[in-house]
Amino acid sequence: MTRFYRWPIRLTSLALCLLFWQVAASQRLDFGLLTFTYVPTPSSVAQAAVALVESSKLWAHLSSSLLRVFAGYITAALFGVVLGVAIGRWKWAEDTLLPPLEVLRPIPAVAWIPLAILMFPSSELSMVFITFTGALFPVLLNTVHGVEGVDPRLIASARSLGAGRWAILREVVLPGAAPSIVTGLAIGMGTSWFCLVTAEMISGQFGIGYYTWESYTIQNYPDIIVGMLLIGVLGMGSSALVKHLGGLLTPWYRGASR
């Protein structure tokens, strides 16, 4: 019931934001550092969204972005979890794998784009690679922290009962690290969208990022906000899906949190 009573507050918050947007854009308010002179109103954005839905372009943009995101994300999730478990569990992996990964981690997605274009034979693969790099490090670091945070007493107890290395990994380490891994997967999904949109703005032909950038170049301002809202909704929805699936796979953690 508590969650039910929180929904009116959340909806009121959204309504107040829309109201401020409507007033600021329609009155062309200018606050000096922040101006709404050229910002379209919510009604014009809604009209642009309806026009996009009725056109044949929406599915082409959506399918392109979704394919790129999930191809890069799934690959990053597999690599991130495997590398994270290895680095968190074994010192030799931490000493050999973590230093180069830590050097690469702060490099932003935009900086990878020229090299990705040189390395891959097609722009499609380069955009998938950019998405991969965005999702890899949140998954990797959360997996490492989750594995390192498993109570050593549980591992010692399992070892004293005769469990082998792989049994400990499967029955103790992975279940203990699962909540942190799920958190990393959810964060990685969000960063995947951020990196993909950046790549599509520069080297894409279809996709939500390309649609948003193209709208800016032709000064179609309502369509810019439509693209931004699509990115937000898709990113929020895909992250929520990852969290939901993670919750189904970790029922013991959900029960403890309640």
TrEMBL record:
Residues 62-242 form the ABC transmembrane type-1 domain. InterPro entries: MetI-like, MetI-like_sf. It holds the Pfam family BPD_transp_1. The chain crosses the membrane at residues 36-53, 65-88, 103-120, 127-147, 224-242. It is found in: Cell membrane. Keywords: Cell membrane, Membrane, Transmembrane, Transmembrane helix, Transport. It is a multi-pass membrane protein. CDD domains: TM_PBP2 (cd06261). GO terms for cellular component: plasma membrane. GO terms for biological process: alkanesulfonate transmembrane transport. Belongs to the binding-protein-dependent transport system permease family. This is ABC transporter permease. It comes from Pseudomonas turukhanskensis. The lineage of its organism: Bacteria, Pseudomonadati, Pseudomonadota, Gammaproteobacteria, Pseudomonadales.
